[in-house]
Amino acid sequence: xxxxxxxxxxxxxxxxxxxxxxxxxxxxxxxxxxxxxxxxxxxxxxxxxxxxxxxxxxxxxxxxxxxxxxxxxxxxxxxxxxxxxxxxxxxxxxxxxxxxxxxxxxxxxxxxxxxxxxxxxxxxxxxxxxxxxxxxxxxxxxxxxxxxxxxxxxxxxxxxxxxxxxxxxxxxxxxxxxxxxxxxxxxxxxxxxxxxxxxxxxxxxxxxxxxxxxxxxxxxxxxxxxxxxxxxxxxxxxxxxxxxxxxxxxxxxxxxxxxxxxxxxxxxxxxxxxxxxxxxxxxxxxxxxxxxxxxxxxxxxxxxxxxxxxxxxxxxxxxxxxxxxxxxxxxxxxxxxxxxxxxxxxxxxx
Length: 350
Description:
The chain is mainly alpha-helical. The protein has helices spanning 16-25, 49-79, 86-115, 122-155, 160-163, 166-191, 209-215, 221-254, 259-287, 298-320, 323-333, 335-341, and strands spanning 3-5, 34-36, 39-42, 119-121, 201-202.
């Protein structure tokens, strides 16, 4: 347990029920002038009671679409031998990261809405911070790896299979998972010693690192410095790799004489480029512009975009723009695929 200094909380006005919840979660053990805080309050996306049912239905639908859509992509790639290529191997990893990312924040939010509580324990909050960092960093690196794969495929097509050997592909998939866990562990270890004496109320729908640092009454300069350096590194390196890859890709495509050849070459990058623009656009909007430029709730809206909306859109982007993926999904959803997996279903076939 982490000790906290006792001070009068400066929190937004809450109604009677919310005050009771706050008192419950703030049950503290006093030792002289020290206290132990057992958890935090997540204010969510809206304090209006009439909005809660709408938010619950909306986010439950988005969560189910994300999990089912990305799950179908993973199954289609795993079951269709035609898709056992480096590009789809990295896409399966991205889909797995997207399912994990949305599962870090949305289920707890839905549970809080359903139970009409705003509480989250200190341990669960720190765990949520850890995994939210892990999956955002993984997405960054995987998008860079996928850009490199497209660079090799278009700029060095004759040597593609020689360069993108299975051992290299596995390494390029494993390294992002290792690096993301290392970055998250550093941030979490630096977060644990901090005191939260002013308030235990987070104006967010999940425990994000930046709002927690603002809430702390300890000296967070080291945390902010590490956040800036690590954040800049995990964004800059993959983005530089993406930028370099697409500069080379554009140059290679422009050298193709036929319009049909240019379109065919560039169409293989269209889905990835769409995801890159969506992902980095929201990241930049939330973390790289001063918070004073955001309207009230702007940070939360931006966080919803890249933690919920982007993972939900990825299956649509890749399936609707990719002929091979559409074919694999059609096969997956047909009885020819499902009947062998479910022998009892053969009794239902005509």
